[in-house]
Amino acid sequence: MNVQKINNGTKLVNAKKIVADAFKNKYAVPHININNLEWTKTVLLTAQSENSPIILGTSEGAVKYMGGYNTVVGMVNGLISDLKITVPVVLHLDHGSKEGALLALEAGYTSVMYDGSHETFEINYQNTKEVVELAKKYNASVEAEVGSIGGEEDGIVGDGEIASPDEAIKMTKLGIDFLAAGIGNIHGPYPTSWKSLNFDALISLSKACGIGMVLHGGSGIPSDQIKKSIQNGIAKININTELQISNAHAIWKYVESGEAKKGKNFDPRKLYAPGIKAMEQTVREKISELGSSNKG
Ligand code: 13P
After folding, report:
1. How far, CA to CA in Å, does 239 sit from each of 17, 34, 267?
2. Does pTM surpass 0.90?
3. Which residues of the chain have a pLDDT value below 50?
4. Which of 94, 115, 166, 200 is catalytic?
């Protein structure tokens, strides 16, 4: 019997080159947060069919939910191999702590964000420096954050904190690969009272750091603002909520229509199918909006 050798070697890459290319050529690499196998498989297959580089992001909470760092690395490497994914795939720790960064890199992540936005700039700077040193040993890319990204609570939008260009320069000199900054963006759905990204802040921070910047809270920003942000230095856009919403809406619709209760539709493969289809559509639209099609 001819047994095909199973390839357990990783094909993951770091995000240094793909984000630098995007910055230079004015498009953005999609960073999509993953939550489970269905999410990961859908994102990988869609990126492959669009020939787009892709960054799979996991928060520490998502890692815990999926079982741990080794589980995520094993799942992603397995899917890349079994599905014959050939576009560049990065496995990135989103909003990580120093401890999380170490665990992720040890397990096989190829990129980490150290999020020190809740600390003073001095502590954020010092911790980022340590993470950059650590990541070098693994040839992994590093994302840092200056200022902070806003959020919404009970309809009241916190603007986040806009960093000074000086802070962006200092952080960049540590050797980070891309920089996140609060520019009026928020995580989660944007309330109707929200007006716009702060393009003045983006332009001055981008000029100061001279490397690709990261737009967090990429769900629900009007397309013209997404495109304008890319023209002004954004090279990586993080998207989570938009996929969660398209997945949930499709499953709700399936359940509410009564279809889910027919025949053998209790089968999880049938129950999840509408969500998977909806996520595929969302990922395809995002890749097209960000201009990363055929950049794989
Ligand atoms: P959204 O959930 O608003 O898309 O933000 C995702 C994000 O920024 C992850 O870091």
Report:
1. 20, 10, 29
2. yes
3. 6-7
4. 94
